[in-house]
Each structure stands twice: as structure tokens, then as C-alpha cells.
Amino acid sequence: MDHIVTVQDAVTAFAPWMEPTDAELDAIEQEMPVILADVDLLDAQIVTLGRTPSELDGRRIRRARRRALAARVALVNRAAGTSLPGGAA
Question: Cβ neighbours of residue 34 under 8 Å, at least 6 residues apart?
Fold first, then answer.
């Protein structure tokens, strides 16, 4: 009879001492508008999976794409603004 055992590393992969650092949490917080905009875009696309998209569905998807793109641009602009010390262009 073979015994089934678990791999200890897999069981304890998320031990309490492996919590995210403050820097990682700050990075997630900065990216949250992009994440939420992407979720809205996915929601709009999922609605149309089982049917032919109507004009209203098309508008919703376009609006969600614009919001997702705007959120990404804002994130990149914030990152670019903080990474140029001394006002260098």
C-alpha cells in the first residue's frame, strides 16, 4: 500500500512570515485603478460572450476600453514623474 503525503513546502508556501512588504502593498495600491478598469472591461466583454453584441454592448465595451487605457496612461505618467529626479526631461 502506497501512502500519499504532502510536500511540506507546498503546504507552508504561504506562511505568516511571507506577508507582502509595505512597498509591495503600495505598488498594488497605485495599480488599483488600472486593475479595476480592467475588471470593468472584462465584465463588459463577458456579457457579450453568449450573444451577438448589441449597439449598447459595443458602447459599453468602448467606454470600458477608454477607461482602462486612461488608467494605464495615468499610472505611467505618475511613474515617469516620480522617476525623473531634479526635473530632468
Answer: 68, 71, 72, 75
Q: 47, 63 in Cβ contact below 8 A?
A: no
C-alpha cell at 67: 477607461
Going residue by residue through the chain, which has 89 residues, state the pLDDT in tens, using 9 for 90 and above: 666 666 555 555 566 677 888 999 999 999 999 999 999 999 999 999 989 999 999 999 999 999 999 999 999 999 887 655 555 55
Q: What is the DSSP string of 10-29?
A: HHTTT-GGGPPPHHHHHHHH
Q: Measured between alpha carbons, how far is 84 from 66 in angstroms, rounded to an integer?
A: 27
